[in-house]
Amino acid sequence: MSRDQLDILFKEYETAFDKLDLKKISGYCADSFITAGPKGSITQNKKDCEKKAAQTNKFYKSVGRTSARIISKRVMPICNDYSMVVVRWGITFDKTGNKLIEFDRSYIIEETGSEPKIILLISHVDEEAAMKKLGLQKQ
């Protein structure tokens, strides 16, 4: 798979995340995938992800999230069929104005089909705790 396809995947993912179009984001994931972070990991499927989209959108709106963009990404091939992509995100909130709140997520991408698919997403920080620390969410 070409690097161009990964670039397209993350450009489209960035647009969908900025718009909080979580149903579209689930389309970039494999039928079953893992999300992980400091609190542990869960396996989910696209259907479950889409069911949680409204709840996730409500949460982001409750903390005043206004935008999201990719600051940088680093692609590291693992083998012919898989890559790890580390993305540095910048997010703004009502309370932070134009100041970007930055955090990293790693993605393992399966490149065995006609389009790359996310099979693992790892949040590097406890985003909920970080939002509380910034005063965006109640303690």
Q: What does this protein look like?
A:
The protein is 32% helix and 42% strand. With 139 residues, the protein is α+β, with helices and mostly antiparallel strands. Strands 2-1-6-5-4-3 form a 6-stranded mixed sheet. The longest helix is centred in the first third of the chain and has 16 residues, at 3-18. The chain is globular, with a radius of gyration of 15 Å.
Strand portion? 35-45%
What is the CATH class name? Alpha Beta
Q: Low-confidence stretches at least 5 residues in length (pLDDT < 50)? A: none
State the CATH architecture.
Roll
Structural class based on helices, strands and sheet pairing: alpha+beta
Helix-residue proportion? 25-40%
Kindly give the count of domains.
Answer: 1
Please tally the helical runs, counting DSSP H or I stretches of 4 or more residues.
5
Query: What's the β-strand tally?
Result: 6
Largest sheet: 6 strands, mixed
Order of helices and strands: HHEEHHEEEEH
Give the spatial strand order of the biggest sheet. Answer: 2-1-6-5-4-3
The CATH topology: Nuclear Transport Factor 2, Chain: A
- Rg over C-alpha atoms, rounded to the nearest angstrom: 15 Å
Shape: globular
Mean of pLDDT:
90
Distance between the termini: 45 Å
